[in-house]
Write a structure and sequence with these properties.
The chain is of the alpha+beta class and 353 residues long. It has 13 helices and twelve strands. Keywords: ATP-binding, Kinase, Nucleotide-binding, Serine/threonine-protein kinase, Transferase.
Length: 353
C-alpha cells in the first residue's frame, strides 16, 4: 500500500480501529451485490463473526456509496436480539469490511427451498420474531424496505434475525418518493415510486408469510413491469378453499390484511401493535419470545450445514484484483467502527430497546 493510501486510511476520520489481519477468515458462507460473506473470527478473542467483504470498485460503479455508508451508519446506532448486529467496521485499499453477528442457521430462502413450505406453527414463530425486530426498527424511525426470506436468518436455536440494512432508511412517518427493494415483496406504493412508510415493511411481511404457507409468492411476473401491472389490476386474497391443510382461517386473514394494496387499509399502518393484536397473534407470549424461552418449532441443521457450499468456488473467484483508485478513497471517509470504543458517543448510541 502506498504512502498516500496509508495517509487516507490511517489519518483523521478514517483512522483504522481494526484491520483485516486482526481476523482469521475461515470460509465463505454467502455472496452479496458488492462482494462476499465469510465465517471468521477475531484472533485475540476467538469470537466468531460473519464478515461482509465489499469491493469498493463495485460500490462506486453501481453508484451505491451512499447506500453502503448509510447501512454502516444505521448499524452503528441500532442493536437488538432480533436483528443482525454490527460489531466492527474497517477498510483496506480495495475493500470495506463489516463484522456482524454470526448466525449459523442459514437464511429462510435456503430452508424454504429445501422444505418447499413451512407449517403454520413454524410460520407463526418466524413471523413473531420478524414483527419483534420490525417493531424495534420502526420505533426508531427506520424502514427496512427489503424484508424477504434471503434477509431473514436463523440462529442456532431457530430464532429469526433481520439482516441486510443496505436500503433501509431512517425517516419520519413517510419517505420521499423512490422505488427500492425486491420485486415480489415490494408494496404497490413502492413499486409505483409513491410516498411510502413503515406499512411497506408489513406488506413484505405479508408476502413472506403467504410464501411460507403456499410455497410461492402472492404476485408473479416475467419482469418488473408485468409484476407491477398484475399487482395493480388484482388484489390477491386467500379464500377458505386456498388454505392448506393444517392452517387456520386466522392465518389467512392475517396475510390478506397485510397484503392490502392501499397502505392506509393495511394491517400495521397504525403501528406494530396493530399487527400484534391481530387474532392470529393476539395470544402470543411476546415476553417469553423476547427472552428466548420458547422452543423454536423449526431447527436448522447442525454446525455449518445451512449454507450453499456448491457455490463457494464461484464466490472465491468473484472479486476483481486491480487496486482501487487512490483518489476515491475519501468517498469512504469515516467508515471505521468499533462497537466497544464507539459505544456511548452521540453518533453511536443504542436506540430504543
Amino acid at each position: 500500500m502506498g504512502n498516500n493510501v496509508d495517509a487516507v486510511l490511517e489519518g483523521g476520520k478514517n483512522h483504522q480501529l481494526m484491520k483485516p489481519s486482526d481476523f482469521k477468515f475461515h470460509y465463505l458462507i454467502g455472496k452479496g451485490g458488492f462482494g462476499r460473506v465469510w465465517k471468521g473470527e477475531l484472533k485475540r478473542t476467538k469470537q466468531v463473526f460473519a464478515i461482509k467483504e465489499m469491493q469498493k470498485s463495485r460500490i462506486v460503479s453501481k453508484r451505491s456509496v451512499g447506500s453502503v455508508m448509510n447501512e454502516r451508519k444505521l448499524l452503528s446506532i441500532i442493536k437488538h436480539p432480533f436483528i443482525v448486529n454490527m460489531e466492527y467496521a474497517w477498510q483496506d485499499i480495495n475493500n470495506l469490511y463489516l463484522a456482524m453477528d454470526y448466525v449459523p442457521g442459514g437464511d429462510l430462502r435456503y430452508h424454504l427451498i429445501k422444505n418447499e413450505r413451512f407449517t403454520e406453527k413454524q410460520t407463526k414463530f418466524f413471523v413473531a420474531c420478524i414483527v419483534t425486530g420490525l417493531e424495534y426498527i420502526h420505533l426508531n424511525g427506520i424502514i427496512h424496505r427489503d424484508i424477504k426470506p434471503e434477509n431473514l436468518v436463523l440462529d442456532s436455536r431457530g430464532y429469526v434475525k433481520i439482516a441486510d440494512f443496505g436500503i433501509a432508511k431512517r425517516i419520519g412517518p413517510w419517505l420521499e418518493r423512490e422505488s427500492s427493494g425486491t420485486p415480489g415483496y415490494m408494496a404497490p406504493e413502492v413499486m409505483c415510486s409513491k410516498m411510502h412508510g413503515f406499512a411497506a415493511d408489513f406488506f413484505a411481511l405479508g408476502a413472506v408469510t403467504f410464501e411460507f404457507m403456499t410455497g410461492y409468492r402472492p404476485y408473479w411476473g416475467r419482469n418488473r413491469r408485468e409484476l407491477k401491472d398484475i399487482m395493480l389490476s388484482q388484489q390477491v386474497q386467500l379464500k377458505r378453499k386456498d388454505i392448506p391443510e393444517g392452517w387456520s382461517y386466522e392465518a389467512a386473514d392475517f396475510i390478506n390484511k397485510l397484503l392490502k394494496r392501499k397502505p392506509e387499509e393495511r394491517l400495521g399502518f397504525n403501528g406494530p401493535q396493530e399487527v400484534k393484536n391481530h387474532q392470529w397473534l393476539r395470544d402470543y407470549n411476546w415476553k417469553d419470545l423476547f427472552s428466548k424461552k420458547i422452543e423454536a418449532p423449526f431447527k436448522p441443521g447442525r454446525k455449518d450445514d445451512n449454507f450453499d457450499k456448491t457455490a463457494q468456488e464461484d464466490w472465491l473467484d468473484d472479486m476483481d484484483s486491480k487496486t482501487f483508485n487512490t483518489s476515491l478513497q475519501d468517498l469512504f471517509e469515516g467508515f471505521a467502527f468499533d462497537n466497544k470504543k464507539n459505544h456511548g458517543s452521540d453518533e453511536n448510541t443504542q436506540l430504543l430497546s
